[in-house]
Amino acid sequence: MLRYNTEHVPFSKGAILAMESHDPDAAAPGGAPARRGQRADAQRNLETLLRAAKEVFAQAGLDAPVRDIAARAGVGVGTVYRHFPRRPDLIAAVFRQEMDACADAADALAATHPPFEALELWMQRFVDLAATKYGLARALHSGDPAFDGLPERREQRLWPAFRGLFERARADGAIKSDIAADDFLYAAGHLCLSVQDSRPEQARRLVGLLVQGLRHA
Amino acid sequence: MLRYNTEHVPFSKGAILAMESHDPDAAAPGGAPARRGQRADAQRNLETLLRAAKEVFAQAGLDAPVRDIAARAGVGVGTVYRHFPRRPDLIAAVFRQEMDACADAADALAATHPPFEALELWMQRFVDLAATKYGLARALHSGDPAFDGLPERREQRLWPAFRGLFERARADGAIKSDIAADDFLYAAGHLCLSVQDSRPEQARRLVGLLVQGLRHA
DNA sequence: AGTAAAAACGGAACGTGCTCCGTTATAATA
DNA sequence: TATTATAACGGAGCACGTTCCGTTTTTACT
What we know:
Chain A is built from ten helices and no strands. Chain A is mostly helical and about 220 residues long.
């Protein structure tokens, strides 16, 4: 069988750095990351691509053809593959970005809402993350090297963000239960995975229940 | 994304039964299995297909295109897919057949050679089996349901065949080592896996060494 | 501004898995 | 043996991932 490329480089330089929300070149809050030494159009296309991929995956699932994503972004497939040499690389990039966005949302919520309410809102966002990316669990388990970094990122970005909100709510006295923060998030995660295959809207409700449970000892 | 078939039937009726060497309709020793209630041409093609697949996989690796196998068998791809709905089903069928053939060879060798010599010869055949199907280890680990039955078959056909030869050689006094039969085969199997990727011919030599080791206490 | 080198682009084209359906071979029946 | 129902066949064709390469855009340097 013919194999075209012999070595596998998971991401282009630009692709890797565009996902780093804490990149030194990151633009103002809410803006998109920037990258020195990369042509402006390449940078633009990378962002467009990531956005398009997020939308297409959300609407058509993780099996959506690369062509559709390229079309939505208004670029050729060649451009997609220059930024993400393999399809799984693109999937991983989108998911990384969404994890980071979810993690970043914690600070914003903490700044604008009372502690427990911030936690409630964040948990809903967390459900949406898991819901959109149902099927990623399968992908993660597939052993594809493109997904290697994701579990680590979950622990390093998502969990700390959650712990911050959780402990703040506990310090505020809103949480009566003595459950450990990590146990709680772990449970919520698995709840999503087991439920949202058949009934996506059910996950929100159930996690909501779980959150309310925190109010009692 | 478009998905054509919704339900997945791993093998056609004929395909399943053709692999059963102990099938009640099996023809004379050395001949091919037969199957009532199936058209003669279908039966013929199934055998041809399995033979062709074995050859193509051996020569071009497990990644060989289905088209090539169909061409070698002198049939259309449609015929391949009628017998084996998904590519992995064909791979699994070939491997099952080869495992069975290897297991069956044990009796023949035992009948025509002195005990230890029979064991030596069978171990070489075992190496060839593992060698031809290098890459199957990966396939097995891929989680594809087509491969689900293979480990069980290995234990139920291959291992007993080996144990028979081994115990016969031990009873004959040719084996001085007190190693357990299963431990020995397990070691040989792993030796093959770790070596034959880079140097296929080396596996035969090393397993040969292992076998000679049995002669000493 | 003009120019040249380099980076990035776009999409035709390829290889592959799998399906669809018109054609052909087989086997039961008359 | 002729007829006919139907099992099985063959291969064109489609969707998709990925590559290749001629064209366009950007950037650095006069």
